[in-house]
Specification:
4-stranded mixed β-sheet; 4 strands
């Protein structure tokens, strides 16, 4: 009960990530019985299809190599030439069957699990050299399953072979009374059909093994609820790691923001809870841009940097809150605040003129007008 509640039972279907990782390791469903069946059927089919030409080539080889003239027998070079010609004829005769077997050997594994090349499967596994592990594999459930399959194949093939031999008994006896050429062709056909029927006996083994391999492969990939949660955390990122990343991002953003404060034309404050730094470039003719903003400690730091670099700091609580909530960093202020910010910048310009001895002291700045949709109250 406790084990079930802790989620340790592998009751959950494998996730796509689990399947992908398993495939990368080369751990997919494969059926040796299906591969064997495919190769056997292809070989028998090739023998039946090309057996006639193979038999004729065999007869030609026998005629050529058993009817040698006296001149050929005493010439050493002639024997080498005969050997070369015989080899070429044999290769050409057997080539169609060999090509059929190669195709079957490639298509068989691909038909179950698809094409896969996993380099990790080529790496040596020294754990397999452990005698204890070897004994454990010898007496495992998998070894018992393989033993039962081997006994099943032997029994089925034996039964099919006995049936085929009893059925073809008359043909086997008739071969002894046929001419040589006819007997060879007949023998090839008889061997091909007999092998084909015995190969068909493996269909039953493959029909059982393929679903079993699919089921076994899925069972190996089954997951516990805790494994799914851990995988989800790894995919999405652990909360503490994500929190730390966000914290570092905020710190980096604040450091970049603080380096922009000395470039500001004015800093508007709440006066203690909010602070925003604005920059206006008349050459570009665009709206003022927010260089920095912050609350509480960050607002205090913005004011300190502004005072350090002799940036004009003005108190306008409503305007400071409106700009803070409506404008992002390095973005222009909204059109609804153009008039209010223009009044602030004009006041800053007058202050600079007064300090330079080029004008009179301006009147104190009044709270500029702010549209209702942009106003943010405390």
């Amino acid at each position: 009960m406790a084990e079930s509640e802790s989620g340790q039972d592998k009751t959950e279907d494998p996730t796509e990530k689990r399947k992908t990782d398993s495939r990368k390791k080369g751990e997919i469903a494969r059926s040796k019985e299906l591969n064997t069946l495919g190769v056997m059927l292809a070989g028998c089919g090739g023998l039946l299809a090309f057996g006639g030409s193979l038999a004729e080539t065999l007869l030609e080889l026998m005629r050529m190599n058993f009817s040698l003239t006296r001149e050929v027998l005493v010439d050493e070079r002639s024997m080498g030439i005969f050997l070369l010609i015989s080899g070429k004829m044999a290769i050409v005769a057997v080539q169609p069957i060999l090509i059929t077997l190669v195709i079957a050997a490639i298509v068989g594994p691909i038909s179950l699990g698809g094409f896969l090349f996993a380099a990790s499967s080529l790496a040596p596994k020294f754990s397999r050299m452990n005698p204890a592990s070897g004994l454990k594999r010898m007496f495992s459930a998998h070894a018992l399953t393989e033993l039962l399959k081997a006994l099943g194949k032997f029994s089925i093939i034996l039964i099919v072979a006995l049936v085929v031999l009893s059925k073809d008994k008359a043909d086997l006896i008739a071969i002894a009374h046929e001419p040589l050429e006819m007997a060879i062709i007949h023998s090839v056909q008889l061997v091909g059909w007999s092998a084909l029927w015995m190969s068909c006996g493996l269909v039953l083994i493959a029909a059982v093994d393929v679903p079993f391999q699919l089921w076994s492969s899925k069972q190996k990939l089954m997951m516990t609820k805790q494994e799914i949660r851990d995988e989800h955390k790894d995919a999405e990122g652990k909360p503490e790691v994500k929190q730390r990343i966000r914290q570092l991002q905020r710190e980096m953003s604040q450091r970049r923001m603080m380096t922009s404060v000395p470039l500001a034309d004015v800093i508007i404050t709440n006066p203690t809870h909010y602070a925003v730094a604005l920059k206006y470039d008349p050459e570009k003719g665009s709206a003022p841009v927010m260089l920095a903003k912050g609350t509480d400690f960050v607002a205090l730091k913005i004011r300190e940097i502004g005072n350090m670099h002799q940036i004009q700091v003005l108190e306008s609580p409503a305007l400071a809150r409106s700009i803070y909530y409506s404008t992002e960093l390095e973005q222009q202020i909204p059109a609804g605040l153009y008039m209010a910010v223009a009044q602030v910048l004009a006041y800053v310009y007058q202050i600079r003129q007064f300090r330079a001895g080029m004008g009179k002291r301006p009147d104190p700045l009044k709270e500029p007008p702010i549209p209702p949709d942009l106003r943010r109250d405390e």
